[in-house]
Amino acid sequence: MASSPQVIICKGAICWGTGEAVKVEEIQVDPPKASEVRVKMLFASICHSDFVRARGHPYPCFPLALGHEGVGVVESVGEKVTNFKEGDVVIPIYVGECGECENCVSKESNICLRYPLSVSGLMPDGTSRISVGGQKAYHVFSCSTWCEYMVSDENYLMKVDPSIDLAHASFISCGFSTGFGASWKTAQIQSGSSVAVFGLGAVGLGAISGAKLMGAAKIIAIDINEKKREKGEVFGMTNFINPKDHSNKSASQLVKDLTNGMGVDYAVECTGVAALLTQALESTKVGKGKAIAVGAGIEEFVPVNWLGLLLGRTLRGSIFGGLKPKSDLPTVATKCQNKEFPLDELFTHEVPLTEINKAFELLKQPDCVKVIIKI
Ligand SMILES: NC(=O)c1ccc[n+]([C@@H]2O[C@H](COP(=O)([O-])OP(=O)(O)OC[C@H]3O[C@@H](n4cnc5c(N)ncnc54)[C@H](O)[C@@H]3O)[C@@H](O)[C@H]2O)c1
Ligand SMILES: [Zn+2]
Ligand SMILES: [Zn+2]
After folding, report:
1. Is 363 in the pocket of ligand 1 (CB under 6 A)?
2. How many Å lie between the centroid of ligand 2 and the Cα of residue 1?
3. Which keywords does this Swiss-Prot/TrEMBL entry list (predicted)?
4. Mutation test of ligand 1: which of 48, 51, 197, 244 has the most ligand atoms closer than 8 Å to its C-beta?
């Protein structure tokens, strides 16, 4: 039985249109429907993909109630919800796992066909639970975490141990887990192999952690921000390339220079810079290299060198690092709980929800990795 069927009026961060500043507005959050859960958010964090959505990609959905990383406490549940109860600590996820569809029963995919990644900005029934100024607001994927309250379908939530560090729980709801999973599940990195990770945000640092866990012998990190060198070291990279130090060479050539001209076994692209996808691909070995596309930008098409691909390399895309939320994500949460990842290194800044725009300024600073939004 729903324990709190009232509409809640609270604050939430809204983007009204492409390129417009985010405003903290009074929003209305509807009660959860039958299979839904309403969550009181405690902490949220910012992932680069929030900016991709705020710029109207892949489809413009405005007003947009932003945020898809976070952690909160269940406030009320719909009448058919059996897996969650008031007081549970939960994180949002944006791919479900029905366990029965063709992709769920396959080891090859985490893209559940029944509960897929939602880019419509709406709940699975095609409606929204948030409104602002009398207008329907859209969600980001299956949630809106930069709000005091949000509603999500129960298939897009995961319970975490209430003793978990809340900032760390927020980081594993997207960015860090995505990179970790890209190395673990999508690339399935072999022990003793070589890996190049392009871009050391939370996603790239997660990819380094995953490569390390899989026993990679060489982990080359590439970033134009020199401050990321020390972060990469903490997470387990073995070599760092700052392309700005070598303006006459491509990033792929710089990776080859560190691997006897051969290239790496795997490359994980985590910048979202379109031109780097072909660099990632070409940094891998001719005949058998695998490049994983994780970064997301605003371009509809990305250039990939045709011959570079024809020469026996594989290019594979990955959503949420190929992690199945029920089968794989609990492993990441347990490792997080056991402090097996140096996640404190990600947490560089904190702002209250009311000062959300300050967070965007902080993100431009070279020493910033993750901004926690205290709700
Ligand atoms: N596929 C998915 O499921 C998924 C999930 C989460 C995030 N993403 C995407 O992954 C990407 C990374 O997300 P994030 O939150 O870690 O981003 P971020 O902005 O924190 O990190 C990006 C890093 O790339 C570096 N970089 C930028 N341009 C570069 C260049 N030309 N050469 C080398 N390094 C460069 C930056 O200095 C930064 O360290 C984004 O595109 C995001 O949208 C995808
Ligand atoms: Zn994200
Ligand atoms: Zn499924």
Report:
1. no
2. 32
3. Metal-binding, NAD, Oxidoreductase, Zinc
4. 48
pLDDT, tens digit (0-9, with 9 covering 90-100), for 330-362:
999 999 999 999 999 999 999 999 999 999 999
- The average pLDDT across 103-108 equals 96
Q: pLDDT band at residue 96, thresholds of 50, 70 and 90? A: very high
Ligand 2 centroid, distance to 86 Cα (angstroms):
26
My answer on whether omega of the bond before 303 falls inside 30° of 0, hence cis, is: no
Residue 369 Cα: closest atom of ligand 1: 20
- What residues have CB less than 8 Å from 355, skipping those under 6 apart? none
List the beta strands (DSSP E) in the chain.
Answer: 8-15, 22-29, 36-45, 64-65, 69-77, 89-92, 130-132, 135-137, 149-153, 157-159, 194-198, 218-222, 239-241, 266-269, 290-293, 314-317, 347-352, 370-374
Backbone angles phi, psi at 253, to 5 degrees: -65, -40
- How far, in Å, CA of 213 to CA of 205, rounded? 12
Residue 169 neighbours by CB under 8 Å, 6+ apart: 43, 71, 89, 91, 160, 333, 336
Q: What token pair was written down for 142?
A: 């299956």
User: What DSSP string runs through 32-81?
Assistant: P-TTEEEEEEEEEE--HHHHHHHTT-SS--SSEE---EEEEEEEEE-TT-
**DSSP-derived 3-state class of residue 14:** strand
Environment of ion ligand 2 (residues, CB < 5 A): 47, 49, 174
| Range name among 57-61, 162-166, 235-239, 344-348 with the lowest pLDDT average | 57-61
Q: Tell me whether the omega of the peptide bond preceding residue 58 falls within 30 degrees of 0, making it cis.
A: yes
What are the distances in angstroms from CA 55 to CA 262, 344, 357? Answer: 39, 30, 16
**Residue of 180, 203, 244 to mutate, ligand 1, most atoms within 8 A of C-beta:** 203
Give the 3-state secondary structure of residue 344.
helix
Q: How many CB atoms lie within 10 A of CB 245?
A: 11
Among protein residues, the one whose CA lies closest to atom 34 of ligand 1? 223
The answer to whether residues 161 and 332 touch, using CB atoms and an 8 Å cutoff, is: no
SS3 label, residue 269: strand
182 lines ligand 1 (CB under 6 A): no
